[in-house]
Amino acid sequence: xxxHGQRRSDATRAPDNSGQGSRRVPMTPGARKVLEAxxxxxxxxxxxxxxxxxxxxxxxxxxxxxxDRFGAKDQIVVEYLADRDERxxxxxxxxxxxxxxxxxxxxxxxxxxxxxxEQSLPRGCSMINAHAEIADPAHPAYAVxxxxxxxxxxxxxxxxxxxxxxxxxxxxxxxxxxxxxxxxAYGMGIFPDAIERARQDAQALVRAAVPSG
Amino acid sequence: xxxHGQRRSDATRAPDNSGQGSRRVPMTPGARKVLEAxxxxxxxxxxxxxxxxxxxxxxxxxxxxxxDRFGAKDQIVVEYLADRDERxxxxxxxxxxxxxxxxxxxxxxxxxxxxxxEQSLPRGCSMINAHAEIADPAHPAYAVxxxxxxxxxxxxxxxxxxxxxxxxxxxxxxxxxxxxxxxxAYGMGIFPDAIERARQDAQALVRAAVPSG
DNA sequence: GGGTGAGTATACAGATCGGTCTACTATGGG
DNA sequence: CCCATAGTAGACCGATCTGTATACTCACCC
Lengths: 213, 213
Fold this sequence. Notes:
Chains A, B: Residues 28-88 form the HTH tetR-type domain. Chains A, B: Residues 1-30 are annotated as: Disordered. Chains A, B: InterPro entries: Homeodomain-like_sf (IPR009057), HTH_TetR (IPR001647), Tet_transcr_reg_TetR-rel_C_sf (IPR036271). Chain A is mostly helical and 213 residues long. The first copy, chain A, is 66% helix and 0% strand. Chain A folds into two domains: 24-71, Homeodomain-like (Arc Repressor Mutant, subunit A), CATH 1.10.10; 74-209, Tetracycline Repressor, domain 2 (Orthogonal Bundle). The first copy, chain A, contains nine helices and no strands. In chain A, helix 4 (73-97) crosses helix 5 (102-120) and helix 8 (168-188) packs antiparallel against helix 9. Chain A is elongated. The two termini of chain A are 35 Å apart. The A-B interface holds A 44-46, 48-49, 123-124, 128-135, 145-146, 149-150, 153, 173-174, 176-185, 187-191, 194, 197-198, 201, 204-205, 208 and B 44-46, 48-49, 123-124, 128-135, 145-146, 149-150, 153, 173-174, 176-185, 187-191, 194, 197-198, 201, 204-205, 208. The structure holds a DNA duplex (30 and 30 nucleotides).
């Protein structure tokens, strides 16, 4: 929503706006423990399947502390997703910065996703999973979810631009498709090494689109 | 799991095994009303977010009828997914049968998905969404979900075989990636006409893989 | 030294959850 | 006629849900 053009900034440096309209919560030690436990439980079991009592117990914190910090479960969900998003962007940017050519930077996104998923995401993309549970667009977490995907699409488009200025939008969308497909196939275990396969297909796609790269 | 080769059968005629180990429920009028209401509510709001009282009320049926037919909410979930799967396969087979060339049959899958989604799936693939909510592989619905995706992957592989016998497995996986990516991008509204775009990319992929088609 | 902020411990409220129960009705087939 | 089947109506169960309340401790800081 709103104008999604975030200045002209190089895509590697725009780790802001992940919290968008949802002001973050002061991260006291208790709040941090809650967020860590909630993040783990939400991801492993699903958001609706995890109650605040369980979160508080797993965090080693009382419910009062939990509600003093977050006010409501919905806000914990927002912080969970915004935090995941923030850490993913930082992780990704590190991969992007150590690549130079436009081509290798595109592939670096898939490398980052593959490594990120293999080290901590056996159940696939948190945003896709959360979107399946949060149907109401008015939910405060909805903007975080769609914001992350919009950011990724814009990133792919920006990365494609140096390679094919006229077809950047189109190429960006194709890369996005492969990337999302890889995440889902990986998360559902449809076949092994799905993200790596998506990377290969992206490589072929880029090669075909810009034979002079 | 197990040997996933289900005979040599032509992919267009294998609408069985959708209910696998989960024996279906006798479809009395009351059961049908429950399934209709549950299907709509589960898809629109998510499985965990919908209670049995609401399902019974929306179906215009008492809770006793609901439990007499299905026994447990989990079983309603199984029937919901198995029913969706069954109807999708029938829908898809109709598209496949009116296409002749291997190439157009591959594209027909994307055509079917596009039309199927546009007419009734604003929130994307039911199986992907259900997988996000059902974390436990021991859940009776889990097999239906993974079974459907395995069937789709096998279908793509079978459709790719006449075009590229040696690379059928590889090409099938690439097509699967694009297809899943299209479904997710469509369901999350990442960009417009995502499935149609996936179809175009699939077309390009097939053309590149088999220039002599 | 008094106040503020962050925390523990625990009880409680009201709603909703999945699921069971009894009592009754209507229908259709041997 | 009779009995099984499929249904309505509605009370009820224990558990769990999100969220609030009271009372107290501890650390820090002006």
